[in-house]
Amino acid sequence: MISYARQTQEEQPEAPPPVEEHIAPAPRVSVQAFCETVETAAAVQSAGEDRRLGKAHLKIQMGGMMAAIEAYRSAPTPNVIVLESDARSDLLTGLDQLATVCDAGTRVVVIGRINDVMLYRELVRRGVSDYVLAPVGAIDVVRSICNLFSAPEAKAVGRIIAVVGAKGGVGASTISHNVAWAIARDLAMDAVVADLDLAFGTAGLDYNQDPPQGIADAVFSPDRVDTAFVDRLLSKCTDHLSLLAAPATLDRVYDFGTDAFDAVFDTLRATMPCIVLDIPHQWSGWTKRALIGADDILIVAAPDLANLRNTKNLFDLLKAARPNDRPPLYCLNQVGIPKRPEIAATEFAKAIESQPVVSIPFEPQTFGAAANNGQMIAEISANHKSIEMFLQIAQRLTGRSETKKQKSSLLSPLIEKLRGK
Ligand SMILES: Nc1ncnc2c1ncn2[C@@H]1O[C@H](COP(=O)(O)OP(=O)(O)O)[C@@H](O)[C@H]1O
Ligand SMILES: [Mg+2]
Q1: In b/e form, how buried is each residue of 77-87, taking b as 16+ CB within 10 angstroms?
Q2: Domain residue spans in the chain?
Q3: If exposure means fewest CB atoms within 10 Å of the residue's CB, which of 11, 134, 410, 418 is most exposed?
Q4: Which of 263, 252, 334 is nearest to 293 (CA)?
């Protein structure tokens, strides 16, 4: 848990985390920070605005250790205290004093400038949960606080990938389903596709599933949502892939509140390593929230002007709302429709200031057959060129490379079992 010396002086404190690093959001906890410098206070402040601390209640004060001791003489302590402290002797005696006024269960994170193993040992002995070396960036504070509440083995658990089209009908659902399939098959990660287009979603059709229950049962009874309940709503598509299907019926309307899906997402996050959200092309409180709250985002665009404008707008909004995350990814789809004038990938890249992950060609025969047969592209045509592209998207989104299929040995089930313990 201690991230001592994790950060060297040369490192950019503001750099977003690498994609392999997954920081799970913190639960509803109270965090109080006592800073000594305005730089640290600013970093903690912007950490508080990060999506992963969206549920936490953060209060920032100046005054460092002395202010903390003073504050908790009379007030109850929060779940987490973040303390900035520069001097070694003051830090240790201060912590001893703080211990006398601290409630049991309060976790203490120290931000300091001294890079020294002896100090680190003394801090561990005093029960400090984490020591972060200053100067800190917002993401360092986010990481430190979130890691207090996620078990070390939970690292792979709960990555949410949101897929949305820059326009309707550009193939966002098709791509999300095929990418999820690649994540499950080629990366051997357990994945679930949540079809959020409740009225018209096609995930059930695409995977050839017609489950009696699905996401509507969860979203319309939020009080019942827990792991066991959501588990029963999943239908199994392949070994590693499940579906939380949309009802695709019109007997009710689907006007959701902004946080209608929070409970479902939180529950899926607790048990599923990879959650692919197939988000319909609409702009509402809950679709915006699903995008901003996701760990990674893929925007699917067709190569025309309206798609370019919409992709740019989505990028700008999402980058501003997620300053400590890497920018969204995007791909072009339905490229090369005969006789249709197109905007080139290079033009897109210039306007968006980012390259598309892939440009998927328009292939009506294969994609049409897959859609009408309820199959994935790889099932229709094992060597189709888009399959490699879906895998590339899967790898970029998850930060994982393909598993070596030959690697399993006689011992691997046993090893898996031991690891599970
Ligand atoms: N690369 C492609 N080539 C040909 N047809 C495609 C391609 N991608 C998607 N389609 C087709 O486009 C239609 C709309 O796709 P869909 O995934 O439902 O779009 P969205 O979710 O963005 O509204 C579907 O009929 C699908 O089969
Ligand atoms: Mg769709």
Answers
A1: bbbbbbbbbee
A2: 30-147, 159-398
A3: 410
A4: 263
DSSP class of 157: S
| Nearest to 4, CA basis, from 151, 153, 144 | 144
The encoded tokens of residue 269 equal: 């996050």
Pick the CATH number of 159-398 from 3.40.50.300, 3.60.15.10, 3.30.420.480, 1.10.260.40: 3.40.50.300
How far is the centre of ligand 2, averaged over its atoms, from the C-alpha of 339 (Å)? 25
Expressed in angstroms and rounded, the spacing between residue 373 Cα and the centre of ligand 2 is 17
Provide the CB-side half-sphere exposure for 86 (13 A, CA). Answer: 6
Question: Among 311, 367, 380, which residue has the most ligand 1 atoms within 8 Å of its CB, making it the best to mutate?
Answer: 367
Q: How far is the CA of 268 from the centre of ligand 2 (A)?
A: 21
Least confident window among 78-92, 355-369, 385-399:
78-92
Could you give the CA distance from residue 318 to residue 396 in angstroms, rounded to a whole number? 18
Q: What is the CATH number of domain 30-147?
A: 3.40.50.2300
Is residue 374 lining ligand 1, measured as CB closer than 6 Å? no
Sign of torsion over alpha carbons 169, 175, 180, 184: positive
> Which tokens hold the place of 200?
């018209």
pLDDT digits (tens, 9 = 90+) for 204-257: 999 999 999 999 999 999 999 998 999 999 999 998 999 999 999 999 999 999
3-state helix, strand, coil in the chain (%, to 5): 45, 15, 40
pLDDT single digits (tens) 285-315: 999 999 999 999 999 999 999 999 999 999 9
Ligand with smallest separation from the Cα of 376: 1
Strands across the sheet containing 296-301: 235-238, 241-244, 191-195, 274-279, 159-165, 296-301, 329-335, 359-361
* The residue type at 248: A
Q: Which residue's alpha carbon is nearest to atom 12 within ligand 1?
A: 171
Rg, C-alpha atoms of the chain: 24
- Residues 6+ away with beta carbon under 8 Å from 157: 24, 269, 270, 271, 272, 273
Q: How far apart are CA 256 and CA 262, in angstroms?
A: 11
Number of residues assigned to the chain: 421
Strand, coil or helix: what is 131?
A: strand
Q: Which stretches does DSSP call E strand in 113-166?
A: 130-133, 159-165
